[in-house]
Amino acid sequence: MTACQSELLQLKNLGVASVNILRAVGINTHADLQRLGAVETYRRIRARNIHVSKVMLYALEGALMDIHWNDIPPDLKARLVQAAECSAELNQATA
């Protein structure tokens, strides 16, 4: 395990499988995740045809907020999903 993996594994909601997915899309550090944010990171995961559920989106946001994904308020979850869907629609329109 590299130092970068260890750093990401220290974040809430992220396990080995999640960290491997993040590394596959170029997220190697907590700073990388902060820079891109949960929605853009989720969008990149989906763009690589890596099948993840919305829970991954919530887990990423929870990791950034240092809370369990299930503790994210419902209104924030709805905004995250809406933002992720809007960015996906924009990408399809420009493709």
From TrEMBL:
InterPro entries xref list: TfoX-like (IPR047525), TfoX_C (IPR007077)
Family matches, as Pfam families: TfoX_C (PF04994)
Top-level taxon in the UniProt lineage: Bacteria
Domain TfoX C-terminal: 5-83
Name the UniProt record assigns to this protein: TfoX/Sxy family protein
Organism classification: Bacteria, Pseudomonadati, Pseudomonadota, Gammaproteobacteria, Cellvibrionales
